[in-house]
Amino acid sequence: MGRQVKPTAGVIGLGIIGSRVVSALRKNGYQVWLYNRSPRPEPNFLSCPAEVAESAKHIQIFVSDGPALISVVKNLAPALTPDHVVMNHATISPHETREAAEIVASRHAKFLDAPFTGSRDAAERGELVYYIGGDSAVLSSVRPLLQASSKQILEIGDIGQASVVKIATNLIAATAVEALAEAHALLDKNGIDLRKLSLALQSHAVRSPLADMKIPGMISGDFEPRFSLKHMFKDIQLALGLAAEKEIDLPAASAFAGAAMAGIQQGWGDSDFSVISRFYGFPGQGHALPEVSPEAAKPEPAAAETKAARGWSLFRGGK
Fold it and tell me: Would you give the distance in Å from CA 262 to the centre of its chain?
């Protein structure tokens, strides 16, 4: 009998999540071809995205934002064929998602809008959850590939709609962590052991896996990134931009954006997004930090900048 040929896959973007997806694919018998903007000492590392498309028909993309995705897809395009399926896992706007899909479709290849939920640890265990926008038949063709790094695959709707769901869930996560930081501040200023909040939440309806995950680090000052502040800030900007388009006000998201902007000014952008609790200076974190300037890098779109600036004012006690 001949030697069994391993299935192939391409992965572009080897950050916190992408690198762990590669490990999951290899554990499941895939031969994986890789590209990352910064070279890595990895087997099958190639020189450009087009070479990934020449080596694998199913390509997963884990880049940081919309412009990075569009750049990668344009580089892929000359090597794409009708047999290719390109999956975008970055959290980006639905407009950018559809733009990328159109580039892929122009080469008669297929595209899935496939953002995910799950942090570094979930990716390590192969327990991501993918939200899928796109054709069900296309999803069926790559389902075994996605199952290698996930515990669930949810079909959402059309291309672009999965991106909106992902942005909405991140809005909930961001504002929940801000609420946890504020709740801890109330305990701290009233002389209550911060660990008592976790005890109280054990029998409270608002307890969540997110709270269980973030509270210990917020108390101890451990902000090793599972999802960075700069990336959460980017995602909340996307939410504010979408809200502005539909004339919806998102005051909680605006407040988080203000806190995140101030935290990035302090140099915390690469820390876990729960690092915003440092503004309250809990005992395990050291002393409270000084006031910060409200000026920051301009977010996109412009509507999101206005919301973030207003949120910063709310966070620092403005009107």
Answer: 20
Cα gap 97→61, rounded to integer Å: 12
pLDDT at 120: 86
Using CA atoms, how far apart are residues 138 and 157, in angstroms rounded to an integer? 13
Mean pLDDT, residues 99-119 taken together: 97
Q: Which residue has the higher pLDDT, 267 or 119?
A: 267
With beta carbons less than 8 A apart as the criterion, state whether 34 and 14 touch.
yes
Residue 158, amino acid: D
**For the chain, how long is the longest CA-to-CA vector?**
75
Residue 276 tokens read as: 């915003």
Q: Cite the DSSP H helix spans in 151-250.
A: 161-189, 195-201, 209-220, 229-245
Alpha carbon distance 96, 102 (integer Å): 10
pTM here? Answer: 0.86
Residue 4 is predicted with a pLDDT of 64
Give the integer Cα–Cα distance in Å for 110 and 142. 11
In angstroms, what CA-CA distances link 125 with 25, 28, 153, 166?
A: 12, 12, 15, 21
Secondary structure of residue 153 in the 3-state scheme: strand
Residues in a beta bridge with 58: 85
Q: Which domains does the chain have, with CATH numbers?
A: 8-159 (3.40.50.720), 166-315 (1.10.1040.10)
- Section 214-228 average pLDDT: 94
Give yes or no for residue 298 having a pLDDT over 80. no
Q: Is the dihedral of CA 10, 76, 242, 156 positive or negative?
A: negative
Query: What 3-state class would DSSP assign to 225?
Result: coil
Q: How far is CA 249 from CA 175, 189, 302, 304, in A?
A: 15, 31, 15, 11
| pLDDT class of 287 with cuts at 50, 70, 90 | very low
Say yes or no to pLDDT of 157 above 90.
yes
> Residue 184 to residues 254, 276, 286: CA-CA distances in angstroms?
21, 12, 15
